[in-house]
Automatic annotation (TrEMBL):
Keywords: Cytoplasm, Iron, Iron storage, Metal-binding, Oxidoreductase. Residues 1-145 form the Ferritin-like diiron domain. Transmembrane segments: none annotated. One of its GO terms (biological process) is iron ion transport. Belongs to the ferritin family. Prokaryotic subfamily. Fe cation binds at E17, E50, H53, E94, Q127. PROSITE patterns: FERRITIN_LIKE (PS50905). The gene is ftnA. This is Ferritin. One of its GO terms (molecular function) is ferric iron binding. It catalyses: 4 Fe(2+) + O2 + 6 H2O = 4 iron(III) oxide-hydroxide + 12 H(+).
Length: 169
């Protein structure tokens, strides 16, 4: 049995993960429009990962005997000045996700809700990976920003990224 506060917070995070997918779709669309199909692929895979994260919350709520409630949300950022700007927006989004996961963990800890704490452990680890992925790419892009050949090589590299839920779970 989860408290009203905790089950509402878990439901909110599920919706925020769906919103994250939406935010990454906007970044993918920007990259597609700039003919950077590899960067676009990277963000499309990222969006799939976020939906997978949302479904983890959906299934956890269901396993605990609660029905997920699906919310609408505001439009994500659709305006980007450059590829670098899109990646910087992504990193700050992931930092916000981390902050929210930590808040959620604090509630579970306060309530000594061990099943939820165990469930959230995966997300705490995942956020380390997420921030690191974006941080690394930002540093790479900053280094090669004015070298179009290098940018095209990175674009080609990111075109090979695929969604593998097995590796995530
Ligand atoms: Fe996520
Ligand atoms: Fe993420």
């Amino acid at each position: 049995m989860l408290s009203e506060k905790l089950h509402t917070a878990l439901n909110e995070q599920m919706n925020f993960e769906f919103y994250s997918a939406h935010a990454y779709m906007a970044m993918a669309a920007f990259c597609t429009d700039q003919d950077y199909d590899g960067f676009a692929n990277f963000f499309l895979v990222q969006a799939e990962e976020e939906r997978f994260h949302a479904m983890k919350f959906y299934n956890f709520l269901s396993d605990m005997g609660y029905r997920a409630t699906i919310h609408g949300f505001d439009s994500p950022e659709n305006h980007f000045n450059s590829i670098l700007h899109a990646f910087k927006t992504a990193l700050s989004h992931e930092k916000e996700v981390t902050r929210r996961i930590y808040n959620l963990s604090d509630i579970a800890l306060d309530e000594r809700e061990h099943a939820t704490m165990a469930f959230l452990k995966w997300f705490i680890d995942e956020q380390v990976e997420e921030e690191s992925t974006f941080d690394t790419l930002i540093r790479k892009i900053e280094r090669i920003e004015n070298d179009s050949n290098a940018i095209f090589m990175l674009d080609a590299e990111l075109a090979t990224r695929t969604f593998t839920p097995g590796a995530e779970a």
